[in-house]
Amino acid sequence: MNRQLTWLRDVQSTIALGRQSVGGASQYLGMFPGAEPGVIDPHLEEYLTAARTLRRDRAGGIREVEALAHRGSVLSMLFLADALRKGQGCELDLHASETWYRRAASLGSGRAMYGLGMINFSKNDIGSAVEDMEAGAERGYGAALWALGLLYKQGGEGFSRDVDKARAFLERGAALGHVWSSRTLAILLMSGRYGLRARLRGYVAYLACFLAAPMAICGGSVDRIMR
User: Fold this and answer.
1) 215: part of which helix (H) or strand (E)?
2) What are the tens digits of pLDDT across the range 55-91?
3) pTM of the predicted model, to two decimals?
4) Residues with Cβ < 8 Å from 112, sequence gap 6 or more?
5) Spatial contact of 14 and 201, defined as CB atoms under 8 Å apart
6) In which band, very low, low, confident or very high, does the pLDDT at 118 lie, cut at 50, 70 and 90?
7) Cα(46)–Cα(176) distance, rounded to whole angstroms?
């Protein structure tokens, strides 16, 4: 009987955590494009104005964003770095992208460290990429925690697989309300590796992800998202 009561309390706790995850994920996704917890942009209103310009005049918007970046707008630095890294609306230029990421990182951006990690991944410099991602994770950037969770979950050439370490990173990302961390964690827990209670928690977390962000369940490949 005591074991059944303990299990029931675990179920109730898991459902509560699932509801909390929905709220956290919704809050995370509800931020304006480019927002990053803990990083304040002194030119936020001007950046949002430039973002609206981008939708109707790409070239003009980029000029506005670049001017803001030179004035110290973190979000503008990140926008330029992302565009240059992916070659979106401009020529691909990893050197210039890295420069903007480093400027944003000097102002405390964890997202910038994530971007530097992605550049190093593209160069197949896994060691440096992991260091960058870990720096981003320490600054509380959910995508960096998710990337580290995937790395340790899957392993690869020159990188040892460590599922328990992967879970630890994913737990931290999920606690921040990062939907893809929650989704990957849920799948890991549903595998049964950590027992029945963890499997139940995985099912609830997976449902919570679907309620918060259906596209995290129904669409989007890891390769496309981690560009």
Assistant:
1) helix 214-218
2) 899 888 889 999 999 999 999 999 999 999 998 878 8
3) 0.77
4) 77, 78, 81, 101, 102, 103, 104, 105, 136
5) yes
6) very high
7) 27
Q: Are 151 and 173 in contact (CB under 8 A)?
A: no
> Angle formed by the axes of helices 74-86 and 110-122, to 10°?
10
CA distance 117 to 67: 25
- Quick one: angle between helices 110-122 and 94-105, nearest 10? 150
Specify the DSSP element, H or E, that contains 117. Answer: helix 110-122
DSSP string covering 55-103 = HH-HHHHHHHHHHHHHTT-HHHHHHHHHHHHHTSSS---HHHHHHHHHH
How far apart CA 198 and CA 202 sit, in angstroms, is 6
Fold of 38-139: 1.25.40
The residues, ordered by sequence, that sit 6+ positions from 185 with a Cβ below 8 Å of its Cβ are 149, 167, 170, 171, 173, 174, 202, 205
Beta-strand runs (E) in 74-190: none
